Amino acid sequence: MAANNQKPLGSGFGAKTTAREVVDGHDLTGRNVIVTGGYSGIGIEMVRALHGAGAHVTVPARRPDVARAALAEISDTIEVRAMDLADLGSVRSFSEDYCGSGRALHILINNAGIMACPEGRVGPGWERQFGVNHLGHMALAMGLFGALQRAEGARLVSLSSTAHILSDVHWDDPHFRDHPYEKWQAYGQAKSADALFALGADRLWDGHGITAFSVHPGGIFTPLQRHLTDEEMAVLGWKNPDGTIPPAVQAMFKTPEQGAATATWAATASVLEGRGGEYCEDCDIAILGTADSPRWAHAREWITDEDKAMRLWEMSEAMLADA
Fold first, then answer.
1. CATH number where 194 lies
2. What is the pTM of this model?
């Protein structure tokens, strides 16, 4: 069943708004925040904005030393803890330690991710992009449920992407065991799963005071492109053959500060009170896509389907239980 709640609110912000502009006027003192991938790219800009508004921010990191060095230029009060989304044991350890501290978790931003990487396996043979981008984050959110519940009004933000347009979930073979691996199909599937996870979490956890949204941050040059060559990006139209960036791409793409804005808005905007489960872009709720929608914008119907969200939740919960 598709939920047609994809209606922009007229937030007053836009594609080029920055994360710090979004939180201007917000006092997040006393609020606890976790941002995965919060030490590079758009993640560090989310941390910068949320910390600047007074929040206590924790950054779980696969490379804690690198994270501490990167975050030191913001503040030495940002908490860095070891965690690897590809290792469920480390996800459980982080979640148990955090919940065991007795703290409430007011904002969880599932931002870390990998894109269009060579075929690889994590956990018990899961396709790597689905395993890290979706299953690792789902395990984290489930492990932190008690802390989110303690907040009595928590926000969960899941980083999806316009790449969800490339593929629905490969329901019969999400780990590419029985059909050939294609890195963009795998990435598109993972980003659809990230959006459906937010929809499912919102519906299942609403009664516990937890609201969830998914977001498309926009086109941004960050370390997320590390698996792509300049030649591949030229084919995609993101770069010229000589490695320079075309003016049209420069105009459309965002800076990391701008790319961090939609997730920060979804995590803090008061206008979103009473809503939940929607897919957001450019600091507002995205419209439901049609046949006339551009390939870089709008929410496609399958990520707004509550039945699919529940199907994904049950399928993923079974995978995590068997891991």
1. 3.40.50.720
2. 0.92
